[in-house]
Specification:
Strand content: 5-15%
Helix content: 55-70%
Strand order of the largest sheet: 2-3-1-4-5-6
Number of helices: 15
Structural class: alpha/beta
Mean pLDDT: 79
Order of helices and strands: HHEHEEHEHEHHEHHHHHHHH
C-alpha cells in the first residue's frame, strides 16, 4: 500500500472520530497520530560501515536479510556513495561503505546528503589485529564529520564476522576493548556482537533497530523478517488501538460507535500485515476478521447488551461496554499478530481470538 493510500485510510478514520463527542475526539486523535506517523514517515535505515577494508559486507547483509542480496561486484565497492539493498516487497536499507581507501571528499559529500542512523565497525575474523590504529583513527574522523554536518551523534556498533565458532567470544572481547580504548569512539559505543550463530544474526537486527529513529524501525522489521522486532512494533499498534476502542465503546449513544470500531479494527489488522512484510490490504484484513468469526452481528449484540445494563447502573454499564470493545479489539490484534507474524495457522489464530475476547467482564461467569 502506497503512503498516499495509507494517508487516505487514516483520514477517513479521523473523519469518523469527529462524529464522537468533543471531549473524546482529541484523546483519540492523540492515540491515532503516533501510529499514523510511524507508517507515513517510514523510510529505509541508513548504516555506515567502518573498520578494516575488504570483505564482510555481503555476510553482514546476509545476517540482516536472511538472504543474499549483494550483487557481484558490490562486496568490495567503496566509492564513497550510498548503496541501496533490499528484498522484493519487504523494504530496503541504505549503506555507505566508509572504509579506507574510499575518498574522504566523496564520503563528506555523502554524509552531507544523508544523515546516518548508525555506524557499524565491521571486523572480519581474518583481520590481523582486533582494530588497527589507522582504522580507528579513520572511524573517529568519519564520526566527527557526520556530527559536524548533521548535528546528531549516531551510535557505533562493533560486529565480528568469525570464520568459525572457535575463539569467537575472545575475538569479540578484543574488538570491544579496542573500540573502547579509543576516546573518540568509546562514548558512541552501542555494544559488540559476534555473528556466530543464527540467534546472534537475529539479534543483530534487534540491536540495530534499537538505535534507529522511529521512522526507520518499521522498515528494518519488514526487511529483516525478525519476528521479535515485528512483534514489538505490532504490540505498540495493538495497545494504542485497544485504548481507542475502549474509549469509543464506552459511549452511551447506541450504534454510534459501530462503524468507527469496525474501521479501526480493520486498519489495525492491515497495519499488522504491513509490519509482517506483506502488502497492506484492508480488503484482506476484512476477510481475515471474518475468518476469525468476528462477524458484525456478534459484536453488535455484545456492545448493545452491555449498554442495556446502563438503565440500571449507568456508569458501570458504560464501563462494561468499553471493556467489551477493548477486549474484542485486543483479541483481534493478538490473533492477527499470531497469524501474520508468528506464522500460526488460521485455526490457532481463531482460538487465540476467542480466548482473548472472553477476557471481557461481560463474557465471564
Amino acid at each position: 500500500m502506497k503512503p498516499s493510500t495509507f494517508l487516505s485510510l487514516y483520514d477517513k478514520l479521523e473523519k469518523l472520530v469527529q462524529r464522537l463527542p468533543d471531549s473524546l475526539q482529541q484523546p483519540i486523535l492523540r492515540e491515532i497520530t503516533p501510529i499514523k506517523t510511524l507508517f507515513l514517515l517510514q523510510r529505509p535505515p541508513r548504516l555506515v560501515l567502518l573498520g578494516p577494508a575488504g570483505a564482510g559486507k555481503a555476510e553482514l547483509l546476509l545476517g540482516l536479510f536472511g538472504a543474499e542480496v549483494a550483487r557481484t561486484g558490490e562486496e568490495n565497492l567503496g566509492d564513497g556513495s550510498w548503496q541501496t539493498f533490499g528484498r522484493k516487497s519487504r523494504g530496503t536499507l541504505q549503506m555507505l561503505d566508509a572504509r579506507r581507501p574510499a575518498s574522504l571528499n566523496m564520503l563528506r559529500a555523502a554524509l552531507a546528503a544523508e544523515t546516518p542512523d548508525l555506524f557499524i565497525f565491521l571486523r572480519p575474523a581474518l583481520a590481523l589485529d582486533p582494530a588497527d590504529a589507522a582504522d580507528l583513527a579513520h572511524a573517529a574522523e568519519i564520526l566527527a564529520c557526520a556530527e559536524q554536518r548533521s548535528g546528531v551523534r549516531p551510535k557505533l556498533l562493533g560486529v565480528l564476522l568469525p570464520a568459525g565458532t572457535a575463539d569467537a567470544e575472545r575475538a569479540r572481547q578484543e574488538l570491544h576493548a579496542s573500540l573502547h580504548a579509543h576516546a573518540a569512539l568509546s562514548d558512541r559505543m552501542a555494544g559488540t556482537l559476534a555473528l556466530t550463530t543464527a540467534a546472534e544474526r537475529a539479534r543483530l537486527a534487534e540491536l540495530i533497530a534499537i538505535e534507529l529513529p522511529g521512522e526507520a524501525q518499521l522498515e528494518m522489521a519488514r526487511l529483516s523478517a525478525n519476528r521479535a522486532l515485528q512483534q514489538q512494533i505490532a504490540q505498540v499498534v495493538i495497545k494504542s488501538v485497544t485504548a481507542i476502542s475502549a474509549a469509543i465503546g464506552a459511549q452511551p449513544i447506541p450504534l454510534a460507535d459501530f462503524p468507527i470500531l469496525t474501521s479501526l479494527q480493520a486498519t489495525m489488522v492491515a497495519s499488522i500485515m504491513h509490519i509482517s512484510g506483506r502488502e497492506m490490504s484492508v480488503k484482506l484484513a476484512g476477510e481475515f476478521m471474518a475468518a476469525l468469526g468476528a462477524n458484525i452481528g456478534v459484536g453488535l449484540v455484545l456492545r448493545e447488551s452491555a449498554r442495556a445494563l446502563a438503565k440500571f447502573v449507568p456508569l458501570w454499564g458504560h464501563a462494561v461496554s468499553g471493556a467489551v470493545a477493548a477486549a474484542g479489539t485486543y483479541a483481534m490484534g493478538r490473533a492477527a499478530s499470531a497469524y501474520f507474524i508468528e506464522g500460526l495457522s488460521l485455526t490457532a489464530a481463531r482460538g487465540i481470538f476467542r480466548r482473548r475476547r472472553k477476557e471481557a467482564p461481560l463474557l465471564k461467569g
